[in-house]
Amino acid sequence: MELFGVKTHHLEGSYLMTKNEIDRIIADAIEYIKNPLHKEKFGTIALGLYDLHRELNPVYKKYDKGPLTDWREIPQLVSLSITMLDL
Predict the structure, then answer these.
(1) Which DSSP letter does residue 87 get?
(2) How many CA atoms lie within 13 A of 62 on its CB side?
(3) Which 8-state DSSP code applies to residue 9?
(4) 16 or 34, higher pLDDT
(5) Is the pLDDT of residue 8 over 80?
(6) pLDDT attached to residue 42
(7) Quick check: helix, strand or coil at residue 19?
C-alpha cells in the first residue's frame, strides 16, 4: 500500500503493530476521506491514526499520551512545531 508516495512495506524496524494493522489503518483513513458519510467511523479512524503516529513517528513520541479511548483526547499539534524539531 502506498500513502503520499510512501510504501508501508518499506518501513523498517521493530514495531508493535503488524504490517496488516498499519495497512488497515491507512486504508480506513483513505476510505473515510473518499467517503465521509459514515461519521460514526471518525473516532475509530482518528484513534487508529493516533496509534500509528505513536508507533512510527519518533517526533510524535514527545506528545504521546498513551492509549486513548476517545478521539477528543488526541494531543493537538501544530504542524510547524513538528517540522521545527530536529529529526
Answers:
(1) -
(2) 9
(3) G
(4) 34
(5) no
(6) 92
(7) helix
Q: Which residue shows C-alpha cell 494531543?
A: 75
Largest CA distance in the chain: 38
For the segment 29-81, what is each residue's pLDDT rounded down to a tens digit?
999 999 888 788 899 999 999 888 888 887 777 778 888 999 999 888 766 55
The full DSSP string for 20-82 is HHHHHHHHHHHHHHH-TT-GGGHHHHHHHHHHHHHHH-TTGGGG---S-SSGGGSPP--HHHH
Find where cell 512510527 sits: 56
Q: DSSP letter at 12?
A: -
Q: Tell me the C-alpha distance between 47 and 74, whole Å.
A: 8
Q: Is 84 helix (H, G, I), strand (E, B) or coil?
A: coil
